[in-house]
Amino acid sequence: xxxxxxxxxxxxxxxxxxxxxxxxxxxxxxxxxxxxxxxxxxxxxxxxxxxxxxxxxxxxxxxxxxxxxxxxxxxxxxxxxxxxxxxxxxxxxxxxxxxxxxxxxxxxxxxxxxxxxxxxxxxxxxxxxxxxxxxxxxxxxxxxxxxxxxxxxxxxxxxxxxxxxxxxxxxxxxxxxxxxxxxxxxxxxxxxxxxxxxxxxxxxxxxxxxxxxxxxxxxxxxxxxxxxxxxxxxxxxxxxxxxxxxxxxxxxxxxxxxxxxxx
Length: 263
What we know:
Elements: H1 2-31, E1 38-41, H2 47-58, H3 70-73, E2 83-86, H4 95-106, E3 116-119, H5 127-132, H6 134-138, E4 145-150, H7 157-160, E5 164-167, H8 174-177, H9 183-192, H10 198-214, H11 218-233, H12 238-250, H13 255-262
Parallel strand pairs: 1-4, 1-5, 2-3, 3-4
InterPro entries: P-loop_NTPase
Pfam families: DNA_pol3_delta2
Protein name: DNA polymerase III gamma/tau subunits-like protein
């Protein structure tokens, strides 16, 4: 029973940190003004939540999302006639959806003074889909606004230059920096990551790197950091990244050879 309560407390702590970081991100975006197109790097599990939260402010007459204006009254659950949300963290918008956005945003607003589009999973956009957004983000129709949400900061340089970038910052929990000391602990850690995205696992690995550096274990820190970098470069799945970490930590794999092959 004691172990179960401890696990529950750790989960509650993580959820509290997650909510705190999410609230800080929303406040940062609002304080910087959100009347221009932007991109935001954050966990996939929070992308739709962010779209709805910011949509309420963007479509509100007073920008509060809470003033009971005609636009605020038009919300039905997480839906609003002038809010467009396309794609998902695992399935980004396709080229047809991206190309149709110009027409969607150009439509006369139903309840608000503008139309707003959030695109989810944009770090996985195909090249044609990403290219189709260049004109839209540079010359958005009317007072429309476009926001690209992604787990990892992967964008065409020409697209990135058109957007203000916001980044989700998750404070590292102590449990995030505790490195498994044997295979059993590593397998236990794997089970704890079942609901994490690749980006969230990479964040935990950053905590491991910091811990190893503090302990003076620079070679191992470099190995894990290289694995994290490779996962971003080659868009590895979470499972591939975790397998790579396992080989580095427990199989004595020649990481220099592995990285040489991948590069």
